[in-house]
From TrEMBL:
GO BP annotations listed: amino acid metabolic process; carboxylic acid metabolic process
Lineage of origin: Bacteria, Bacillati, Actinomycetota, Actinomycetes, Glycomycetales
Molecular function GO labels: aromatic-L-amino-acid decarboxylase activity; pyridoxal phosphate binding
Pfam family membership, one: Pyridoxal_deC
Protein name, entry field: Glutamate/tyrosine decarboxylase-like PLP-dependent enzyme
Length: 464
């Protein structure tokens, strides 16, 4: 054995304790740390011929890389839709690495059973009935891709062919309809060979991101009975808007289509009695995307895809090899997702669900929603800012009251980032340059919201 590796093995317990100290210092500083740090790129170093050992690697990381990390796990990072990681989720993620289970197949381990148990809990949390089965994937992009891959096979089934065997050319022209599709949907269509051009954007309700059911009906009618795929939204990026899922699903009584719902973060509205109505009809979908490293607050990378048609899913993703066995009636996960080798992502989710239950995660969701409403009120108290949409869930979409050009929005965002108080991202809504902030971190408090609002107001006031 390499002598440095041998020494690390002998001192593994002490080295893990040293790693814990590094992690503890980081976590304890999150509430006060700058939301973003000055981006520094260390000069490249040659690959070490002789390594430094774990202690040396920890030291090199602390000196070279850690100072440039953002506090994206902290309470005032509102860019994208970035959750943190609850204490239990961190513990589960650490144990995932320590135990190093390959969750692809049976492998004489209970890992597969734990994943099935966890996906069943998540389905219950989201209000999905037992007809749905779930599998862990890396994120919303992969979850959407798996759902649309199953939809692609369903289109073939309607035509009497298997796309998994004959190829996508057997389908001919395909139509995908959506009101406000997430960029990952386009990416998934490209990867699946259906093509970005297969997606028709359907008109939305006035000043909304929610699809207009009447316009969707007209698009489906125009297909003359040809089957299609409809991608509905449970939480859009800019305004966290929701399609009327019940109305969309009802159209299947007249027209043949596969209903895929992108509920990456909005699906978690289901845990709150106040907001659960937003996802009415989610259980009528054929496939559902939900992203756990957003509002469930587990570490990256973690998402789940759900479907009613596991038979079609297996047809797409089954892996033929003598040592893997036949999928059978209860296929291993390597027959259900793109990956053969996969870590036990379910463990972090199991830990946080076990530790905090439905009530604990409901509290996180409702506190984040309250934070978004408070931020909206604080920002619009200034005559220099206005909301572009009412705050309905956890996202605040706002712009300058006067002359909201891209350059002026960019200047505000630079100033906010330089303050290190918070981090927000640019967008366009209703064709207007804007700023959006999404609350999804379990740490965020009212005091954090006040600091965020003060930083934004100052940046806008400083705008020449």
């Amino acid at each position: 054995m390499d002598p440095i590796l041998s020494q690390d093995r002998a001192e593994f317990t002490a080295l893990l304790a040293a790693t814990l100290r590094h992690a503890t210092e980081y976590v304890e500083g999150l509430d006060t740390a700058p939301a973003v740090a000055p981006v520094t790129t260390p000069e490249p170093e040659p690959l070490p011929e002789r390594g430094y050992g774990l202690a040396g690697a920890l030291d090199a990381f602390a000196r070279r890389w850690a100072p440039g990390f953002s506090a994206s796990a902290g309470p005032r990072y509102l860019g994208f839709v970035t959750g943190g990681a609850t204490p239990a989720a961190v513990a589960g993620d650490w144990l995932t690495s320590v135990c190093d289970q390959n969750a692809a197949g049976d492998g004489r381990s209970s890992a597969n059973a734990l994943e099935r148990h966890t996906t069943a809990w998540l389905a219950e949390l989201l209000g999905l009935d037992p007809a749905f089965s779930g599998s862990f994937v890396t994120g919303a992009t992969m979850s959407n891709m798996v759902g649309l891959a199953i939809a692609r096979e369903w289109l073939g089934e309607r035509m009497g062919v298997s796309v998994a065997e004959a190829g996508v050319a057997a389908l001919g022209a395909v139509t995908v309809l959506s009101g406000t599709p997430h960029s990952s949907v386009y990416k998934a269509l490209s990867m699946l060979g259906l093509g970005r051009d297969s997606l028709r954007v359907v008109p939305t309700l006035r000043d909304r991101e929610a699809v207009d059911p009447t316009a969707l009906r007209a698009e489906l009618e125009s297909l003359g009975g040809r089957p299609a795929v409809v991608v509905a939204n449970a939480g859009t990026v800019n305004t966290a808007d929701f399609d009327d899922l019940t109305a969309v699903a009802a159209l299947r009584r007249e027209y043949p289509f596969w209903l895929h719902v992108d509920a990456a973060f909005g699906g978690f509205a289901a845990v709150s009695p106040t907001y659960a109505h937003l996802v009415n009809g989610l259980d009528q979908a054929d496939s559902v995307c939900v992203d756990l490293h957003k509002w469930l607050n587990v570490p990256y990378d973690s998402a789940v895809q759900f479907t009613r048609r596991r038979d079609l899913q297996t047809r797409v993703f089954q892996n033929h090899a003598a040592y893997l066995g036949d999928p059978g009636d209860s296929p291993d996960f390597l027959h259900l997702t793109p990956e053969n080798s996969r870590r036990l992502r379910a463990l972090a989710a199991w830990f946080t669900l076990t530790a905090y239950g439905r009530q604990g995660h409901r509290e996180i969701v409702e506190r984040n929603i309250s934070a978004a409403h408070r931020l909206g009120e604080l920002l619009t108290a200034s005559p220099r800012m206005r909301l572009l949409a009412p705050v309905g869930l956890h996202t605040v979409c706002f712009t300058l009251a006067e002359n909201p050009t891209e350059a002026r929005i960019a200047a505000v965002l630079r100033s906010v980032a330089e303050s290190a108080e918070t981090f927000l991202t640019p967008t366009h809504h209703l064709e207007i340059p804007a700023i959006r902030g999404a609350f999804s971190n379990w740490r965020t408090t009212t005091a954090d919201v006040d600091r965020i609002a003060a930083a934004v107001r100052q940046a806008v006031d400083d705008l020449s």
